[in-house]
From TrEMBL:
VWFA domain segment(s): 83-253
Keyword annotations of the record: Signal
Entry superkingdom: Bacteria
SUPFAM superfamilies xref list: vWA-like (SSF53300)
Pfam families: VWA
Protein name stated in the entry: VWFA domain-containing protein
InterPro entries found in the cross-reference section: CLCR, VWF_A, vWFA_dom_sf
Lineage: Bacteria, Pseudomonadati, Myxococcota, Myxococcia, Myxococcales
Segment forming the signal sequence: 1-23
TM helices/strands, residue ranges: none
Length: 450
């Protein structure tokens, strides 16, 4: 092999003086799987890629990005009949203009449905009241309108009772089933802790009911409502006031009509790449691997997942793979799945690890990880844990410093310290809700929020 051939087969960054030494080493391992892969099956496509084509043999941090989309060309016209449950908070805090706006939005919601559709109207405070699941004939619309007019605000917040009633109402419905939960406060009656409430929503979603969670005002628990929407495969909405509810409920009807798949899950498996965290999403560890619940996809609204990984110590020139299995159910029929594997290889060269990484994906991962800590810091500030919030922001600032393309996040951290530090308790709640909504973009969930 002549000197020119050696040069062409080596990395371009190697100097001519090192060529003879490199010539005595074995050539690089060609991985079975590339650093990027794609798979199309049924109505869904999944694309995946890694930020690093090589990692250090002693271990490296890296990111994976997955994009899942519903194929537009296989999507029929959005005209299918739907079954809906509108679950509305009528606790004392909803009194006044807030309840009037909610009533007006509910009336409009009813009129968006036709005789093929079904609706259960459910309200909760200390107790739960509801209509049956009714076909939206003209006569039944009159019944539901009357129930909406009769709603008054008083008492506590029995959120779990409302969710349970909605699940029961939709249990035997056909076609696309969707529950829309609207609340302006934190649960105070029944199941009040996050794991119990998420479990209730999980049971509904496992039964093919999509759950959307909408928060009105700034007093509700934003991270709880996001988690409910995530586990329920639906949308999360921060509505500064109830005037926006009418528009959002209209979008929920459109989403239900255009639904083609549900119960979408992404399962990650690897012996060599450890899932450290998935910014902005919750991970359920099972014998199958790390399971993520994704939104029930709509046409033209893909979802992205960013995964923070750590490679394990391995021998040089080892291939380290990450398998991603996408599982879902069509509205009618059996569960389906498709899988891709992306991989990297190990080297004993720190500089090569840096030069071979994809900077744009690395920056997106770093930004997502830093943003996750900013959201957690806002929640800590709301609880009065100022030391915890400060530590989280310090950590976020360090993460943003790991990529030149993410350095703007450091200025955002400084601004957040100032704004939250000067704000009153109620102002901090509003700042938190705005931050939670804004950061959905960094987490790849920009199509999952209102």
């Amino acid at each position: 092999m002549n000197r020119l051939s050696l040069f062409l087969s080596s990395a371009a960054v190697l100097s001519a003086a090192a060529l003879l030494a490199v010539a005595t080493k074995p050539g690089p391992l060609t991985p079975k799987h590339p650093a990027a892969a794609s798979s199309h099956s049924g109505a869904l496509t999944i694309d995946g890629k890694l930020s690093h084509s090589v990692v250090h043999m002693d271990g490296s941090e890296l990111y994976a990005e997955y994009t899942v989309r519903l194929d537009d060309e296989t999507t029929p016209t959005a005209d299918q009949p739907i079954s809906m449950a509108l679950v509305l908070d009528r606790s004392g805090s909803m009194s006044g203009a807030k309840l009037e706006d909610a009533r007006r939005a509910a009336h409009r919601f009813v009129e968006l449905l036709d005789g093929r559709d079904e609706l259960a109207f459910i309200t909760f405070s200390d107790q739960v009241e509801s209509t049956e699941l009714l076909k939206m004939t003209d006569a039944n619309k009159v019944t539901v309108h009357g129930a909406i007019d009769a709603v008054t605000a008083s008492g506590a917040t029995y959120l779990s009772g409302g969710i349970e009633r909605g699940t029961s109402a939709l249990a035997m419905a056909r076609g696309a089933r969707r529950m829309v939960v609207v609340s302006d406060g934190q649960p105070t009656v029944g199941a009040v802790d996050e794991p119990a409430l998420v479990s209730l929503v999980g049971r509904a979603h496992d039964g093919s009911i999509t759950v959307t969670a909408l928060g009105v005002g700034a007093e509700y628990d934003g991270l709880l409502m996001q988690h409910l929407a995530e586990r329920g495969g639906g949308m999360y909405g921060y509505l500064r006031d109830a005037t926006a509810l009418e528009d959002v409920l209209g979008k929920e009807v459109a989403a239900a009509r255009s639904a083609r798949v549900r119960n979408v899950e992404l399962v990650l498996e690897s012996r060599d790449l450890q899932v450290v965290e998935v910014p902005g999403r919750h991970v359920r560890n099972t014998v199958d691997g790390a399971v993520l619940h994704l939104a029930d996809l709509r046409p033209g609204a893909p979802t992205r997942v960013l995964v923070r990984l750590q490679s394990r110590r391995s021998a040089p020139e080892s291939e380290l793979g990450l398998k991603a299995t996408l599982r879902w159910r069509p509205l009618e029929g059996e569960s389906q799945s498709s899988a891709i594997t992306v991989s990297t290889r190990t080297v004993d060269d720190t500089d090569l690890v840096v030069t071979r990484r994809e900077e744009s994906l690395w920056a997106k991962g770093v930004s997502a990880a830093g943003s996750m800590r900013m959201v957690a810091a806002a929640a800590a500030w709301e609880r009065g844990d100022y030391a915890g919030a400060s530590n989280l922001l310090d950590n976020a600032k360090s993460l943003f410093g790991m990529s030149a393309d993410a350095l703007a996040g450091q200025s955002e951290v400084d601004t957040m310290r100032r704004d939250f530090g000067n704000a009153s308790g109620s102002e901090r709640k509003e700042l938190s809700r705005k931050l939670e909504k804004k950061k959905l973009l960094n987490f790849g969930r920009e199509n999952e929020g209102y």
